[in-house]
Design a protein that fits this description.
By secondary structure, this protein is mainly alpha-helical. It has 20 helices and no strands. The protein has two domains: about 200 residues, no CATH class; about 220 residues, no CATH class. About 50% of the residues are buried.
Length: about 450
């Protein structure tokens, strides 16, 4: 595939991905705004803990079933798919039971007794996910982006209607918990309509099991450290700040994640399967990807720069006075989002050439950085200091991933340095322009907490 061919193919696929992602995120943002009007901030803080526990239980047992189906040449065969689905079902049942029986222990560990009642119900999510059809991964493997896009928009609409209806009926934590569980059930049912004719049966094919485990061992390690690295902020802050503060932080984190999740979606749905299908060495992969990668990340740098420049204004317009503190958190988180985007792209390429070790070790570096730096920053500067360090952790992960990519002739260091300069200049340019015409204040007002922290130093 030539650079031009790759770029044209990517543009068409990304067109579908962008439109569907924009719709999904618009629905989720509307859902978030409406729920924020109905529900109190502490409920979002409690739900942030529930979601962290749920994601943790999932990732701490992840063996890369989906990645195996996408990257393995035998991933479309009935034996491989049925074996993968059987392992997925067994895993879902085990995780559901683990969540159910550990609910009291987790409630005591986090210091929130409400969790002992909430987590047994949330355990249903694991069971529903376990029985999901592998059609989602098969559609990803064959780049059926249109079909996946319609599926995700439909689930987002169902989630919005369900959550808002429940919040109006019972403006308590149950609106958030039951909304998530019912959304999981809807996704389970809809997943069986993604690939017509696909059916599953309980089956264990020994050769398929061996291939799943061989590739999955690095995904397993990567998932463990990925969870610790990506959720260290939630785990640590949930023990240090109030549920109200945690809920406000969660609002800012949700807005920041909208951007990184879009790039992650492009990476998993497009870049990863495209690279896996090339079946060539790293240097040739780099040659084919560099032009398209450069163009797409340049557009991302400018768009994200604009988002950072108006971040405080976005919070002020969308949320009421109870959530305005998120306006000073969001811009700092978005700085880290840029490096998260670069690492996501590089991870997708490395996994596409079946080199997942670099991703695992990069997440180890990020977690170790957080483990040492976040408590120190929080102790010295409070929440604002911790948030600055959380953004800096993305740089640590990028550096390690770049090292592994370079070994495979997949390093893009010079490009990424230039793109980072464009990103920072975009923030400065857009903010200065907006301040000049009176829409916003200067750059110092965008990062007030960070400015105060630097002044204290």
């Amino acid at each position: 595939m030539s650079v031009t061919s790759f770029t044209k193919t990517a543009v068409v696929k990304i067109g579908w991905t962008t439109i569907s992602y924009a719709l999904v995120q618009a629905i989720r943002l509307l859902n978030n705004i409406v729920l924020a009007r109905i529900l109190a901030p502490p409920l979002f803080g409690l739900m942030l803990i529930v979601n962290t526990i749920r994601v943790g239980i999932e990732l701490l047992s992840d063996v890369g079933i989906g990645q195996n189906i996408v990257s393995n040449p035998k991933g479309s065969t009935p034996e491989f798919l049925d074996t993968a689905w059987t392992l997925q079902v067994a895993r879902g049942l085990v995780l559901g039971l683990a969540c159910f029986f550990s609910s009291n222990f987790l409630a005591e560990s986090f210091g929130h007794p409400e969790l002992s009642h909430v987590l047994p119900i949330a355990a249903l999510f694991f069971i529903f996910t376990g029985f999901d059809s592998t059609g989602r991964f098969l559609a990803q493997k064959h780049l059926l982006v249109k079909r996946l896009s319609i599926f995700e928009v439909g689930i987002a609409l169902f989630s919005f209607v369900t959550h808002v209806t429940l919040a109006l009926i019972t403006p308590t934590i149950w609106a958030l918990v039951l909304g998530s569980v019912l959304t999981g059930a809807a996704a389970l049912i809809a997943s069986f309509f993604l690939v017509p004719g696909l059916r599953h049966r309980i089956m264990i094919d020994p050769p398929s099991v061996r291939e799943l485990i061989t590739f999955g061992k690095w995904i397993f390690l990567s998932s463990i450290v990925y969870f610790l690295a990506m959720n260290f902020d939630r785990l640590y802050l949930s023990l240090q700040i109030s549920l109200t503060q945690l809920g406000i932080f969660g609002i800012a984190r949700t807005l920041a994640d909208m951007v990184s999740l879009f790039v992650s979606r492009c990476g998993s749905l497009l870049l990863f399967p495209m690279v896996a299908a090339m079946n060539v060495e790293g240097a040739e992969v780099r040659r084919r990807l560099q032009g398209g990668r450069r163009q797409l990340l340049l557009a991302t740098a400018i768009a994200l720069g604009l988002f950072v420049a108006v971040a405080d204004l976005v919070v002020a317009l969308l949320y009421d006075s109870r959530y305005q503190a998120a306006g000073s958190i969001l811009p700092v988180l978005l700085l880290g989002t840029w490096f998260a985007i670069l690492t996501t792209v590089n991870e997708s390429i490395l996994i596409g050439v079946r080199k997942p070790a670099g991703s695992a070790l990069a997440n180890v570096a990020k977690f170790l950085f957080y483990l040492g730096a976040v408590p120190l920053a929080f102790g010295a500067f409070g929440l604002s200091g911790a948030i600055v360090v959380l953004s800096a952790g993305e740089v640590a992960k990028y550096a390690v991933l770049w090292f592994f990519g370079r070994r495979e002739h997949l390093g893009f260091g010079r490009d990424d340095l230039a793109l980072t300069a464009v990103f920072l200049l975009s923030i400065l340019g857009f903010r200065s322009l907006l301040a000049t015409i009176g829409v916003t204040r200067g750059l110092g007002e965008l990062f007030p907490e960070a400015a105060a922290m630097l002044a204290a130093v």
